[in-house]
Amino acid sequence: MKLHGKTIVITGSSSGIGGEVARLARFEGARVIGIDRNDTLLTLDGFVKMDLGDPAVIDAAITALPDRIDGLVNAAGVPGTVNSDIVARVNYLGLRHLTEALVPRMLKGASIVNIASILGADWPHRLDAHKELAAAASFVLGKAWLDTNPVQQENCYQYFKEALIVWTKKRSLELFMQDNIRMNSVAPGPVFTPILGDFVSMLGQERVDRDSALVKRPALPDEIAGPIVFLLSDDARWIVGANLPIDGGIEAAYV
Ligand SMILES: NC(=O)c1ccc[n+]([C@@H]2O[C@H](COP(=O)([O-])OP(=O)(O)OC[C@H]3O[C@@H](n4cnc5c(N)ncnc54)[C@H](O)[C@@H]3O)[C@@H](O)[C@H]2O)c1
């Protein structure tokens, strides 16, 4: 069992990829605590209902989380069809806030996995902006930076997935050197989950048709969960700051 004896916190555990990671992590021996804004139907070792877009709610609710944590999977997310302010709060600012709040509870060797996306693949094109946002390290500072550097609704999902990849890389080095905590991200291509339809509305049929020609099919959530569980495990102990594509080859097809 790859995660025997580990305590893993998983956001977005009530649906899709987060739910599948929760199921597989328990199967691999972990004690799993789920977090979501929606109730869960899964068998978990604990569940905390919270809105990850509000730092005050996060601060109040994390008292219910364990004092000692071996892993965190940030799977909660919203598509770009919702308001860009909510995308910023849930997919980036709240994710960072929760992660930083839990770092002091993480044991040496702990692993954090952030779910980015193939849609964040253009991060090198806006690297300077993403580094500036990463340096605005708190929720409040990040929000202030975004107020002076507004992100368009049309590409907000892509923007904050790019920003997440860059923050993961920048912050992972400090976490590994200072606290022996590993942080990585994964970049799935399309996955059969309830938000897949939103991506079609978000990207438009033409882009979806173009990308569809590059892949055999969307992934099933368990095809994403396996690599995430690997990154949580000690087998991945020398993997730090990586952004792992799990996309059936789409990224390779862009070359
Ligand atoms: N499905 C895809 O094609 C795909 C592709 C690449 C990346 N992703 C990313 O994978 C992650 C998981 O998405 P999914 O496909 O499993 O979607 P999903 O909708 O099935 O699951 C997302 C979960 O996040 C929760 N959530 C959303 N907002 C929240 C909030 N404010 N507070 C607490 N919980 C909240 C939802 O309740 C839901 O349970 C997301 O970050 C998404 O951007 C998905």
TrEMBL record:
Keywords: Plasmid
Superkingdom of source: Bacteria
SUPFAM superfamilies named in the record: NAD(P)-binding Rossmann-fold domains (SSF51735)
Gene3D superfamilies in the cross-refs: NAD(P)-binding Rossmann-like Domain (3.40.50.720)
Identification of the protein by name: 3-alpha-hydroxysteroid dehydrogenase
InterPro entries cross-referenced by the UniProt entry: NAD(P)-bd_dom_sf, SDR_fam
